[in-house]
Amino acid sequence: MTAAEVRQIVIDIIADIAPDEDVSNLDDAKTLREQLDLDSMDFLDIVMELRKRHKVEVPQEDYPQLASLNSCVAYLLPKLS
Amino acid sequence: MNDSQRIVITGIGLTAPNGNNLSDFRGALLEKKSGVRHAEIRYMGIQAAGLCDFDEFKYQSKKLRRRGTRAGSISIYCANEAVIDSGINWESVDRSRVGVYLGITEHGNVETENEIYEMHQNNLDWKLWSPHHNPRTVANSPAGEVTLNMGITGPHYTLGSACAGGNVGIIQGLQQLILGEVDFALAGGVSESPQTFGIFAAFAAQGALAQNEDATKASKPLDINRNGIVIAEGGCIYTLERLSDAKARGAKIYAEIVGYAINSDASDFVNPNSSRQVECMHKAIKRAGIEIHDIDILNMHATGTGAGDISESRAVREAFASSDKTYVNFTKGHIGHAMGAAGALELAGNLPSFVDHMVHPGMNCEELDPECEIKNLVYKEPKKLESVNYILNNSFGMLGINSALIVKKYIG
């Protein structure tokens, strides 16, 4: 799986969790919470969907790795490859 | 009685399987337009159900709809519609003095079934159980979603009262206003029950789930060929105010709530008790300070079950034996059984009678069960009366809970 594909996986999940948000022009370097109306429950949903859709487990201590798209890709790429 | 102790209805927000506002709902009742259709129910296949088609996103974001429940979504729609209908300047309302009181038959079945289904689809991985499950399933959830949506900081809770819930929610709102606990009440009932297969399966197990090739004819209260309940969703929320407050702001007033009663059969989990139903209606009439013959319209609970319809028919015959001017109708033939919403919705369906003097007919009673014969039963065509001053609304539920609510035409 490529970095672009991992990025798209995360964006697809966010689009489902926060359907009112525009996810087409996200800055990968900025935190997701800076750009989107996401709260802690939304991040739990992201973790849940990664597990359900892609069998990826994100332990609680790794939640900060999901802060931005860049950090998401860096963290998830080895797990999804 | 002092105007501050008299409670009036000043706004109505509703969604029914055959209408998303009072005007459309009333029109459908008069025209015998059904809101029942066939729908795919998990595990069970096609079943008749009463489903609503209101715009879920009129007052709620997609994200919060996803986070909440169908019952919450119905509640938010109805509450917002009611406040707009009341004409109150919502921005100037002290939200800490607003209370939300919603009757429910059940809550949480839908979400729990969904979680178990998802877990089962994913090799029983319990870690997929949603963190939203608890806030979605706490019993106050539908009322709480209304407060979140509308910035209400006064009290909120639901009234678990089986299928008497709609009436009970209204009664609670009335009582809290009289006690001075709040100044403005959002009160009524809601149902999301068709979203859960378990309620269908349980009624089927009881032999009480309606079946018909034509879904619009499945709900047949009082008909000799009735074969059970059509499960429906819906909601109806009223804005209730003290008459003194309503007059002070020049509000339009749909009706005054003048009588009510809630009692218990104390006899069976599911079978009704007509003697207790008679007592309930008579207690409400006594509280209203009127005579039996003063009731112009009585809306029956009439679910379409064998035992329920016979019991209530017997109760109505006995309770109103002395009245020749009380006309009787029922609503579930049109919309199915909207569970916790039923009492509140069915009351709304009759409220326009104060203005147009029409009694909407019951629907799908093609051959009246002789055991359900009732004097002045309106089930074929609408009936025009010379005047309508009092309406009594019955709503009963499992575990033997009975409720009767009486509203009076308001003449300023």
Short characterization:
Chain A has 81 residues and is mainly alpha-helical. Chain A has helices at 3-17, 32-35, 40-54, 69-80.
Mean pLDDT across residues of chain A: 96
Helix and strand sequence of chain A: HHHH
Structural class of chain A: mainly alpha
Q: In whole angstroms, how far apart are the ends of chain A?
A: 5 Å
Order of helices and strands of chain B: EHEEHHEHHHEHEHEEHEHEHEHHHEEEE
Oligomer category: heterodimer
Q: Largest inter-chain interface? A: A-B, 13 and 13 residues
Q: Per DSSP, what share of the residues of chain B sits in E-state strands of 2 or more residues?
A: 15-25%
Q: Strands across the major sheet of chain B, in which order?
A: 5-4-6-8-1-9-15-14-10-11
Kindly, what is the distance between the CA atoms of the first and last residues of chain B, rounded to a whole number of angstroms?
15 Å
Structure description:
The complex is a heterodimer of chains A (81) and B (412). In chain A, α1 (3-17) packs across α3 and α1 packs across α4 (69-80). Chain A is built from four helices and no strands. With 81 residues, chain A is mainly α. Helices cover 34% and strands 22% of the residues of chain B. Chain B is built from 14 helices and 15 strands. Chain B has helices at 22-30, 62-67, 70-86, 109-121, 133-137, 141-150, 165-179, 197-205, 243-248, 274-288, 306-319, 332-335, 339-350, 353-356, and strands at 7-15, 36-41, 45-50, 98-104, 156-160, 184-191, 231-232, 234-242, 255-264, 297-300, 327-330, 358-359, 383-384, 390-397, 401-408. The longest helix of chain B is centred in the N-terminal third of the chain and has 17 residues, at 70-86. Chain B is globular and about 65 Å long. Chain B starts with 6 loop residues before the first strand and ends with a strand. The interface between A and B is medium-sized, with 13 and 13 residues.
